[in-house]
Amino acid sequence: MFANVIKKEEEIVKLEGLEEDECLQLLNSHAFAGVDNPPNDHKKLRTIAGEIVKKLLGSPLVAKVIGGVLKDNLDERH
Fold first, then answer.
1. What is the rounded distance in angstroms from the CA atom of residue 26 to the CA atom of residue 22?
2. What domain of life does the UniProt record list for this protein's source (predicted)?
3. What pLDDT, on a 0 to 100 scale, did the predictor assign at position 15?
4. The model scores a pTM over 0.90
5. Other C-beta atoms within 10 Å of 71: how many?
């Protein structure tokens, strides 16, 4: 009955994902947190991160989570 008295129109808001460069920056900020100047062996990891970002569809949550997972093991085999 209460729902009938208060009729609220629902508005759907479609959110857009981040741009690839923003998503990559977010992923890298979590993956390389605390690493001031990543050594040369991390250059390949940054390239791999770029490939990963293409598959994230701009999702900031996924970029943050994957960056955190990579931070725990900065190894290209991971």
1. 6
2. Eukaryota
3. 87
4. no
5. 15
* pLDDT score of 27: 94
pLDDT mean by block of 10 residues, the chain; 78 residues? 67 92 94 73 82 95 94 71
Report whether 30 contacts 68 (CB < 8 A): yes
2 sits in which H/E element: helix 2-5
**Do 76 and 42 form a contact (C-beta atoms < 8 A)?**
no
Q: What are phi and psi of 18, to 5 degrees?
A: -70, 155
Query: Residue holding tokens 């100047």?
Result: 37
**Tokens coding 40:** 């040369």
pLDDT number for residue 23: 97
